[in-house]
Amino acid sequence: MLKGQEYTQLFQVTDKVYNGFIETFKDTNPLHTDDLFAKEKSFSGKVMHGNILNGFLSYFIGECLPQKNVIIQTQEIKYNLPVYLNDKLNFYAIVEDVFESVNTVEFKFYFSNENNKKVAKGKIQIGII
Amino acid sequence: MLKGQEYTQLFQVTDKVYNGFIETFKDTNPLHTDDLFAKEKSFSGKVMHGNILNGFLSYFIGECLPQKNVIIQTQEIKYNLPVYLNDKLNFYAIVEDVFESVNTVEFKFYFSNENNKKVAKGKIQIGII
User: Across the interface, do A55 and B21 touch by the CB < 8 Å criterion?
Assistant: First the structure.
């Protein structure tokens, strides 16, 4: 992986992803499960769990890179806008730095929605193992 | 929530959690699914996805706090040691700061394993909505 290399990937928060996340992690907070509660809090409907995006990041690192011998070392994410059920998200990542001496690669990334608004952004550092 | 308040929670990376994560997010990288590959990379066996811990964080914020009207704004995590299938993890979090003017609360957290080693640590900032 070389500095400046870019990656894109389409993700969708389908019913299957949403239900799978809840069945796996049991986070049924009303913001994520109750449209009325979410609307009272001035969202358009129930808000998807932010950590669904971190699951997508896991897929990106584990499955979309040119090499499989990788492990996540650190990651950070800021959530800018709510994501709703069935939203299609464009994921964009760029290799920000390669530290060959310690076999690490740092990416910057963001997810944007169908209105071209960034819903989340962050950094992720991986090790080459 | 008040500065200095502490929370603890026990989590386990059961087969159900592990399989649920893979079924939901499709990250079948060999490090996470192939004991031989992981051992060649000098791990004791297949390494659990780091983002399983972020799923546990979702549960903590959504379900374990004294109030439900919360949303994650930012989060960061550093992975220190591998987590293996069936590992029991002690989660510890402390309220590091409360910013009443903007209705945000910042936690520091870590996960430790049964050998009392910290496997991951980080920060998470939530908004009160």
Answer: yes
